[in-house]
Request: fold
Amino acid sequence: MKTKIILVLIFMVCTFTEMMAQYSIPSYNIDITQKATFQELSQEGLVNPLDQGKKDVNIEGHTPLLPAGSPCAQVWVYSLDKRNVLGPYELVTDQVLQVPVDDRAWGVYIEVSAELFTDVWIDEGL
Reply:
């Protein structure tokens, strides 16, 4: 009887909880079907003072379901210290969305309406 109750509770939690994938930055060719988050891995002690404030978060989406240049996702870029949220931005298929950010660690939240293969990376100190 206890086993059945536990199994029912696990089933209910899995059914009613929205699962969201989480990936590291950089990530390439990630298949997103609804929502996903990407987070920059911290690199403590490796910050170059000349590069502060000079990096771009890059997001690119590819899908065979839409023609090139079509809107395919909503994107938000957020600081991991939770002080800033940038967006929403509209991601267009086969084009790079580039968001300039400072030297803090950042994350990306993406919502899609159709399957999307996504690349997320950061260019530092150009």
About this structure: The longest strand covers residues 71-79. The chain is about 10% helix and 50% strand.
